[in-house]
């Protein structure tokens, strides 16, 4: 006769999070100005399902996005973005592990870049590192949140 096996519960593992920052050339698929509302609506739906949060900016014909979530979900999302005809020349600026999400509660927020200084505009669309871009976009997202209160 065998003795019963006592199973001890496994400790809860912390959710692994990463932050990914990329830039891409924005390609309009229609005449006239690019409508970002469709991109944001699709992102909110898909990112919510994947438990990804983030913020999107469009500056000087360039998409700049900060994404946060599970590493595998981010890899799958980047494959979708690279295959999307609205993006060309996708460049990952940085990807690193994080303890918490900056954009918690936002499956996707579109930030307004119209009031950026020339220096911050160039940093966002051309020269900034992943950390610098994240700082600018986080500030813009917080300004948007503040204006909604």
What is the beta-strand fraction? 25-35%
Amino-to-carboxy terminus distance: 67 Å
- Mean pLDDT over all positions: 85
Low-confidence stretches: 2-12
Specify the helix fraction band.
25-40%
Total beta-strand segments: 5
Count of DSSP-assigned helices: 4
Strand order of the largest sheet: 4-1-3-2-5
The total tally of domains equals 1
Overall structural class, as computed from helix and strand content, comes to alpha+beta
CATH class: Alpha Beta
CATH architectural category: 2-Layer Sandwich
Q: Tell me about the largest β-sheet.
A: 5 strands, mixed
Order of helices and strands: EHEEHEEHH
What does this structure look like?
- The protein has 149 residues and is an alpha+beta fold.
- The chain has one domain: Alpha-Beta Plaits (2-Layer Sandwich).
- 38% of the residues lie in helices and 26% in strands.
- The chain contains four helices and five strands.
- It has a five-stranded mixed β-sheet with strand order 4-1-3-2-5, sandwiched between helices.
- The longest helix is centred in the last third of the chain and has 19 residues, at 130-148.
- It is globular, with a radius of gyration of 19 Å.
- The model is unreliable at 2-12 (pLDDT under 50).
């Amino acid at each position: 006769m065998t003795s019963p096996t006592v199973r001890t519960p496994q400790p809860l593992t912390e959710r692994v999070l990463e932050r990914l920052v990329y830039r891409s050339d924005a390609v309009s698929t229609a005449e006239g100005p690019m409508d970002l509302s469709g991109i944001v609506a699709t992102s909110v739906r898909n990112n919510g399902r994947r438990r990804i949060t983030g913020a999107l900016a469009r500056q000087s014909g360039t998409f700049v996005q900060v994404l946060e979530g599970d590493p595998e979900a981010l890899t799958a999302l980047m494959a979708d973005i690279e295959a999307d005809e609205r993006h060309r020349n996708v460049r990952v600026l940085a990807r690193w592990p994080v303890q918490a999400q900056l954009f918690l509660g936002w499956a996707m927020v579109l930030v307004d870049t119209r009031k950026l200084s020339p220096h911050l505009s160039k940093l966002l669309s051309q020269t900034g590192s992943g950390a610098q871009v994240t700082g600018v976009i986080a500030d813009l997202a917080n300004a948007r949140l503040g204006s909604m209160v």
